[in-house]
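Students often ask why inverse folding is considered easier than folding. One informal answer: many sequences map to the same fold, so there is more than one right answer. In these notes we will look at a single instance of the problem. The structure comes first.
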């Protein structure tokens, strides 16, 4: 088997951090080579070097035995390399066809030939089983649909090297099946595939070999991934044993604190109701498009509601936007942290302090800066945020550390009562997941209500006291922790399943308040 792609002592340094330190490994033609490691280990940096976005500070990149020195993404594409990044690269105002053929649009008489472009893309989408209209605007599509557009773009470039960075992080079950089929077809065609994922079951299903990174260094390459035990992979990645990643803790639940009554809006299909007790972790599961995120946005006042109310500790929460929800103690960590969560060009400290600044009534620039610096340092340490310093721009952090910064922003709120987490571990490594689960249980232990929306069923089952299942814009059932198995949850979540189960009460645990 030919070593088609080689990294030879590749290094990359950013201010205050060595992102890659002498990394060497080879990937072969007709092989899927997995890259594993915690967020910030250097995997995505390596792909940006492969894709021409970064220049290495040392070492060599060889493709088909020839050394390559890319100065731009265009150079990499010209060399037959396609990279599908975790942070999607698209133009939201352009159509599906225009995004897929960006820079390669067909022309006629010196003008763009849009009908031909739409026909080309429609045929390719149909061939690979993706149901998207070529003339649909990217801004109007879901994150999962945009992800499929990026995958189609890479395939239509006819690249010999294709790298996937967390490709299934927002895909539905059906879309994931399509991706798996495409990966296997590309491997059979002799392509060289690099695959990054934090979902170990995916890596075992697809990868022939794998290389593990930690703190910018290559730890080990396993030539036959199927022979490596799961526990060995995890310990290689995090440098420690993780016996129970979900770290679930039983706790006494308080009285009812949150009551959602008849909540309705544009993106749900009828009035939705549920309630929560103090100290409860409530999981929301459903397939992509089930309406989970949309319901959370109604609860948080991010989208206008047509009916219903939110009652917290006996008081109705005003509907005058997210600021009213935050003032009442309800906060949301959104699904799309890049577009809706972080202030990309602001520092870590600014991102942590942006909400609590409204409580600063003392004035005085020096006092405010001193307090904000102390608060940022406290949460950087408490949440184990990997950053050179609090002044680092958040866009330079890994996805998992960006997520921790958003969490810190809301944990710093003195009046926190309801914490809503929408896909809190999407694209996050196993070590960072363990940290976030620990934080979830600590917040619940304080008597807060914690809602976790996730498309990872083992995650929902692992951390929740109770699970609510949604399907096609409606709540279709609730299950206690004791009754919530994968089979039962999927029975409710999949279309054409049997009738929903009736509403059940929260698990009968002691009712003394822990608020």
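Output (designed amino acids):
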């Amino acid at each position: 088997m030919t070593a088609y792609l080689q990294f030879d002592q590749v290094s990359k340094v950013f201010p205050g951090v060595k992102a890659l330190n002498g990394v060497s490994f080879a990937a072969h033609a007709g092989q899927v080579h997995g890259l594993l490691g915690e967020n910030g280990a250097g995997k995505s940096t390596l792909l940006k070097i492969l894709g021409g976005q970064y220049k290495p500070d040392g070492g060599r990149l060889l493709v088909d035995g020839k050394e390559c020195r890319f100065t731009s993404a265009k150079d990499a594409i010209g060399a037959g390399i396609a990279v599908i990044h975790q942070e999607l690269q698209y133009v939201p105002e352009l159509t599906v066809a225009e995004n897929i053929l960006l820079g390669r649009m067909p022309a006629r008489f010196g003008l763009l030939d849009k009908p031909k472009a739409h026909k080309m893309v429609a045929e390719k989408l149909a061939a690979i089983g993706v149901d998207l209209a070529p003339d649909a605007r990217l801004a109007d599509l879901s994150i999962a649909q945009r992800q499929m557009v990026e995958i189609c773009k890479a395939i239509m470039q006819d690249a010999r090297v294709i790298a996937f960075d967390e490709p299934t992080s927002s895909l539905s079950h059906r879309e994931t099946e399509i991706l798996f089929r495409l990966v296997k077809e590309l491997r059979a065609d002799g392509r060289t595939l690099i695959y990054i994922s934090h979902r170990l079951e995916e890596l075992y299903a697809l990868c022939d070999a794998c290389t593990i990174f930690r703190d910018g260094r290559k730890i080990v390459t396993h030539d036959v991934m199927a022979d490596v035990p799961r526990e060995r992979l995890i310990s290689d990645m995090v440098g420690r044993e993780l016996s129970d990643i979900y770290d679930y803790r039983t706790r006494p639940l308080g009285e009812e604190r949150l009551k959602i009554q008849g909540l309705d809006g544009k993106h749900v299909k009828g009035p939705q109701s549920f309630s929560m007790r103090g100290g409860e972790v409530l999981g929301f599961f459903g397939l992509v498009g089930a309406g989970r995120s949309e319901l959370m946005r109604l609860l948080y006042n991010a989208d206008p509601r047509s009916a219903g109310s939110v009652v917290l500790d006996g008081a109705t929460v005003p509907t005058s936007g997210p600021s009213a929800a935050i003032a009442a103690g309800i906060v949301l960590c959104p699904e799309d942290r890049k577009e809706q969560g972080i202030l990309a060009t602001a520092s870590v400290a600014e991102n942590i302090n942006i909400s609590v600044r409204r409580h600063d009534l003392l004035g005085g620039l020096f006092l405010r800066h001193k307090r904000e610096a102390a608060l940022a340092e406290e949460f950087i340490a408490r949440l184990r945020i990997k950053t050179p310093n609090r002044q680092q721009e958040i866009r330079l952090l890994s996805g998992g550390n960006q997520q921790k910064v958003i969490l810190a922003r809301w944990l710093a709120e003195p009046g926190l009562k309801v914490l809503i987490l929408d896909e809190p571990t999407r694209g996050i490594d196993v070590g960072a997941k363990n940290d976030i689960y620990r934080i979830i249980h600590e917040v619940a232990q304080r008597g807060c209500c914690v809602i976790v929306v996730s498309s990872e069923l083992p995650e929902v089952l692992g951390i929740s006291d109770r699970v609510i299942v949604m399907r096609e814009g409606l709540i279709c059932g609730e299950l206690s922790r004791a009754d919530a198995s994968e089979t039962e949850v999927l029975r409710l979540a999949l279309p054409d399943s049997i009738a929903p189960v009736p509403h059940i009460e929260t698990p009968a645990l002691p009712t003394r308040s822990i608020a």
